[in-house]
Amino acid sequence: MLSDIEITHQAKLEHISKIGEKLGLKEDDIELYGKYKAKITPHLKESNSKLILVTATNPTPFGEGKTTTSIGLADALNLLGKKVCLALREPSLGPVFGIKGGAAGGGYSQLAPMEDLNLHFTGDFHAITSANNLISAMIDNSLHQENPLKIDKILWKRCMDMNDRALRFITVGQGGKADGVEREDGFNITAASEIMAILCLATSLADLKEKISNIMVAYDIDGKPIYVRDLGCADAVCILLKDAIKPNLFQTIEHTPTLVHGGPFANIAHGCNSIIATKTALNLAEYVVTEAGFGSELGAEKFIDIKCAKAGLKPDAVVLVTTIRSLKYNGNADKSEISVPNMRALKEGIANLGGHIENLKDKFGLNLVVALNKFGFDVDDEINFVREYCAKMGVKMAVCENFAKGGEGGVELANFVLKELKKPSHVNFIYKASDDIKTKITKVATQIYGADDVIFEDMALSKLDKISSLGLDNLPVCIAKTQYSFSDDAKLLGRAKGFKFSVKDLEIRTGAGFIVAVCGKIMLMPGLSKKPSAMDMRIDENGVISGLA
Amino acid sequence: MLSDIEITHQAKLEHISKIGEKLGLKEDDIELYGKYKAKITPHLKESNSKLILVTATNPTPFGEGKTTTSIGLADALNLLGKKVCLALREPSLGPVFGIKGGAAGGGYSQLAPMEDLNLHFTGDFHAITSANNLISAMIDNSLHQENPLKIDKILWKRCMDMNDRALRFITVGQGGKADGVEREDGFNITAASEIMAILCLATSLADLKEKISNIMVAYDIDGKPIYVRDLGCADAVCILLKDAIKPNLFQTIEHTPTLVHGGPFANIAHGCNSIIATKTALNLAEYVVTEAGFGSELGAEKFIDIKCAKAGLKPDAVVLVTTIRSLKYNGNADKSEISVPNMRALKEGIANLGGHIENLKDKFGLNLVVALNKFGFDVDDEINFVREYCAKMGVKMAVCENFAKGGEGGVELANFVLKELKKPSHVNFIYKASDDIKTKITKVATQIYGADDVIFEDMALSKLDKISSLGLDNLPVCIAKTQYSFSDDAKLLGRAKGFKFSVKDLEIRTGAGFIVAVCGKIMLMPGLSKKPSAMDMRIDENGVISGLA
């Protein structure tokens, strides 16, 4: 079996300008970054093209293959002669050197060249890092230059695209009088920066500037918010992002056009690619396949209630990816025997799939297909059981073999999706903008997560007051909780129900334009592992890379 | 008068592939980064083309226009029908937001688009930042994972391309047991990173890997050096630099081909563009104009004794840039009246020019022309005085008006240079590789700087022993001292002589392959000013930038 990177090295890629031609892009619309990647001019008109959202059941330690399925589905639509474009997130560089590795699909459903995508790509993450850290430098410089803004409590953190736990909690400004003002600080990974969320939610350069101006970075000594506009550097920050805001054109190894743009965390942020890229894809193709982070209760909910609400979008069909392995895991199968057939565990764990189907089909009112990402060790009895379960719930299930077969392995899914797309589409938002923040969180937690009750801890209660006093109750909520369960407890597998849902804290993101509800511990700066992937990577004298997963 | 950025916006640039054609580059040699910048394949054969080094008298607060003169000279050679290529350094992003602004020449002798060059360009600095910080993350991870290498004293610092004084002295790893090991650390600006020096001194990807492997990052508890190769991440670091090592093709506003590649500090490092770019330029053109940082006693010395010695290069002619203003400053003219004619000050200060001429012509044995960068307020008497002074010293002086007139303003200089290039060329190195470090420093300080005596302080003496015991006496020395004087005292203007030169400390750079002699305070992380340039920058809704200097 070839490794992922070997498969991409064997693929014959097309020049990216040829991929652009398939989308009708003119020469002037394309800024090449080498032969296989390009920045393109955003196209932001209203469009009647079909938007297909790929989401999944709750993640497990084994991986469900959501991106592989997204790529495979787009390649399948391409095979069927449809004018299709993928709209995906950019992977973060830091985790590539840790355990996680890159994120460009897998097997025969991949984006390529994968080393480009997983390393610096077109520099968007670096631009975001610079923009974030210019704000930090301006804050610390203002403190140092006699603090004219009377900065007191600083909310803004530095960032870096690296797995580096030693930077989580630091003290800066320690050298002496000439070396800044001593204070506690920390670095988040770039994907967790509010700038990343802003880039993904901005609808134009002017909107980007307004959002950046509105970032709340600190409170002054009277408790009044200080914004980036008060630091006087909103334009400079925007200047650093002038290219990063343009979507990146890329391709699958089957030459399906792909816009890869933006990569916000799916906990502290909304976890989807940029609005600009999604809209551009809809302008350039008839079918757009996109995805949202983590399971549907987190990713699809934010996709709809944050991204779609802000952008005036709706998914015309939704693909819910699952695996028999992850359903068995949800049915408490032994991890060491997860590949062994186990109908007992499957029957118990399939409730997880059921919960996601119910939410997507009945609560959000979406056209839905289940994609079973098939592995070699899955047996027919198990597959048939899932198919019948889906049928009983009123949805079709397609068997997907994209990892092994590329687009061909996704033709059944593509056909089911095309059928769903013939139905009228419609989306129910879970809350209204006019609901206050407490109501919004409560609606998501009870209606989507399945909580009986929502408990707001003291810190969260005091923040609710702050939010109201600042007039920010109209913002959507971005809930940061564990991705492993419907609930806020990673161990409650299956279809958790009847639990109490705790909100510990709320964070105000006036730039991105949402309120983060912190429900559990959220990790914003990963660490490297005992034997980091960095140690297994090789590059030869011709620049050929191996060991990049 | 138009601002620099306005001048570049009025220029009609050529598509960068057309600039590449002028150099005989084939389509496969060029990786476009948009329309106006490209990465090109290195060309590293021996070449008989002519290498012209542009250096200067000691810097003053007013600026001498060295890069403007380099660009103007190349444009003039281009006007005269010569096949010419510039080989310059990349500017650092951080200072753009502080006081200094960008670095792309000025007036009508500029590189363009200047916002591209001064912002992210082709991402080289970001790649170097990532590479540097991956090493830091690996060190801190090793500490955290039970410290198998028994790391004790860490030499390696993090870096960021930002003017951020608060990061000079920090403490990392403060969160608790899961958040790394607490220790003192700091960030240098990216241009001061050893990785930057390595990138500029590497002669191939294989050589880059070897140099990175050899970086000494720490001592273990037994005082034994720990290298990047011991961390096991040399390949991963190299992978991050696989594109950064390729030269960047750019153009002047008069369409002269320019390779802009690498930007190491001229104190802690050698302050020249990359060997790979200089050699590639020599392969692609008949005349190559390059420059070295600060005044000739620092920049030209390192260019010769470090870069040329390592690369097997020699300058066929040298241009020594000066201004009447800077010579008057060296003659203790009042700063507030520096633009007023002042023969007394000029006569006193011209000794500075004399010292540089003597060094370049007599000590290094180089073919030399003086370029007087003329300002509107310079009067004929002053200009004639400098010309006659040069004549007495046996060198021609050309009046340069590149800022106001572009290449046309450099034709006299170009013609003088072409004459020098007809002479045989030859270079005297100041020291031999076999001299020990103490001897090397002493030779440079006495023969080039003009010191009577060299004092090695205690710390330096103990490091001399360490260097000998590690067998590193064969390395060249990279002296870090003030750029404002021949001496180590910024206030000794003119032709300082007969001073005692103090060496405080020595730093071992086994990756870059030199020993840094620290002679005075060296600033490796600048700060922002009271009103940073960032506050004056603007970008409109179409992405047009103003206020970027």
From TrEMBL, chains A, B:
Pathway: One-carbon metabolism; tetrahydrofolate interconversion
Pfam families: FTHFS
EC number: 6.3.4.3
GO BP terms: tetrahydrofolate interconversion
Key words of the record: ATP-binding, Ligase, Nucleotide-binding, One-carbon metabolism
Enzymatic reactions: (6S)-5,6,7,8-tetrahydrofolate + formate + ATP = (6R)-10-formyltetrahydrofolate + ADP + phosphate
UniProt GO MF annotations: ATP binding; formate-tetrahydrofolate ligase activity
Leader peptide range in chain numbering: none
EC supergroup of this enzyme: ligase
InterPro entries referenced in this protein's UniProt entry, alphabetically: Formate_THF_ligase (IPR000559), Formate_THF_ligase_CS (IPR020628), P-loop_NTPase (IPR027417)
Residue positions binding ATP: 60-67
Top-level taxon of origin: Bacteria
Family: Belongs to the formate--tetrahydrofolate ligase family.
NCBIfam families for the chain: PRK13505.1
Name this polypeptide is given: Formate--tetrahydrofolate ligase
Lineage: Bacteria, Pseudomonadati, Campylobacterota, Epsilonproteobacteria, Campylobacterales
